[in-house]
């Protein structure tokens, strides 16, 4: 958690302001009983007169108002500082997470990342507000209270210290029981988020398979678990309050008892005794505040560590220190040189010894069985992961030697699972090119065979797309995701099984228009259907992460057994001939 303190640097002025205001607030609080004792001892018992009482009363009022102003100011500044601190941390967490490779996402988990960016940071915020206000107030009130009390009666102060020490130990013992509980809270919030996320994103599958009841139980379990812990904490805290109140009252009784005797013996004034009781209460309250702070500490500390973990996790893929730029005349090419890749923790490589080249004006198709490594190969071109050995060159430069921005600017990518974002159709397409003109957007949509259905939507290109694109069909989502890629007019186009949800006629029209549009570009298409890829310039056949053959359809039909098998399983005798 301490690592996060550096975020407080920009709030040094405000923190100093809080400390000054808290200092003034404490002075006011410590001064009040003293004035009151003077009113009683000198004004009433000493017969100093009404004027004196009114004067002291006025002073008391002034001190009270001043104290209140300081309290409000301190609360305001502390809240602002904590909110600003959390805004900065949240901003940095978000920025840092953006640099994550898919590995880091897998390691922390999306649900936990959401909890850490929201709930954990809020925990820190709440703790910080309390900490800023209490860190000075608690010791100052405790020590100041003792000094002031000692000024009234030294002997009685020892009685006070003794009782308070015993009470403090009792309170700490009770609070100590909540430490582990508070610590476990964040993990339980994580669990709830995970279950909730899965339920919401998978709602269709859950309903279709009548899994509502099962999911409800899963959520109830997570919910009950969190609630149970929260109740246990509250129960302990609830027990603490009466214990403290009892302690305070006992303290008052003992102080009145001992102090009463001293008043009778004329060793102490009545007003001083009253002030003494108030100091006792103030010290007790200060210790209570310190205890509350300590109780919250494990939870805030756990939250802080979880945030630090996110910030401390170094993305495995970074930009080079001296990035290279491909030569200006490069028109888009992709080359794999003996590339081997394995997912972290996997025993076997997913891709082994892959070599091929795809240049401008060429269409390279990749075909292979499920799980043969087709998508992984495209992921490597985009540098979502780094190859274990070998080189991947884009426009003649190793992808590790150029910035990811430079690399990805050259590429238009259509993922296997079409993802749309909340916004208009036009905004979704423009994600491929921020400054795309209406004409470019319309053209991209037209090539992607999306114009027809977009124009039928209410509002056309300004029609709303719901989060995740749930208000359009799978095929429509795919076409919009293709349009988003095409609007970039990139030199390298990667299509990961991107035509799978299209009917045969739409796919044929799309391919025809696409061929014209990408005439001079490099196109790499991952496909499952032989009919869709058989006209490619090169077909790369992947079998269990290895290249089983490269060539044209005819060449592969003659020389590649794996390809022949795929073809035989899909095409009729006539089509094969
Ligand atoms: N993030 C990941 N972590 C670990 N292993 C993975 C990961 N993604 C994929 N794999 C594994 O790598 C192998 C290749 O996966 P990939 O998605 O590249 O196959 P594919 O040929 O595109 O399959 P499909 O045709 O079903 O889309 C599979 O065995 C898969 O289980």
From TrEMBL:
TM region(s), chain numbering: 12-32, 52-77, 127-150, 156-175, 236-259, 279-297
Cellular localization per UniProt: Cell membrane
Keywords: ATP-binding, Cell membrane, Membrane, Nucleotide-binding, Transmembrane, Transmembrane helix, Transport
PROSITE patterns: ABC_TM1F, ABC_TRANSPORTER_1, ABC_TRANSPORTER_2
Membrane topology designation: Multi-pass membrane protein
Domain named ABC transmembrane type-1: residues: 16-299
GO MF terms, alphabetically ordered: ABC-type oligopeptide transporter activity; ATP binding; ATP hydrolysis activity
Keyword S-adenosyl-L-methionine: no
Record InterPro entries: AAA+_ATPase, ABC1_TM_dom, ABC1_TM_sf, ABC_transporter-like_ATP-bd, ABC_transporter-like_CS, P-loop_NTPase, Type_1_exporter
Gene Ontology CC annotations of this record: plasma membrane
PANTHER family named among the record's database cross-references: ATP-BINDING CASSETTE SUB-FAMILY B MEMBER 10, MITOCHONDRIAL (PTHR43394:SF1), ATP-DEPENDENT PERMEASE MDL1, MITOCHONDRIAL (PTHR43394)
Protein name: ABC transporter ATP-binding protein
Organism in which the protein naturally occurs: Gehongia tenuis
Upper taxonomic lineage: Bacteria, Bacillati, Bacillota, Clostridia, Christensenellales
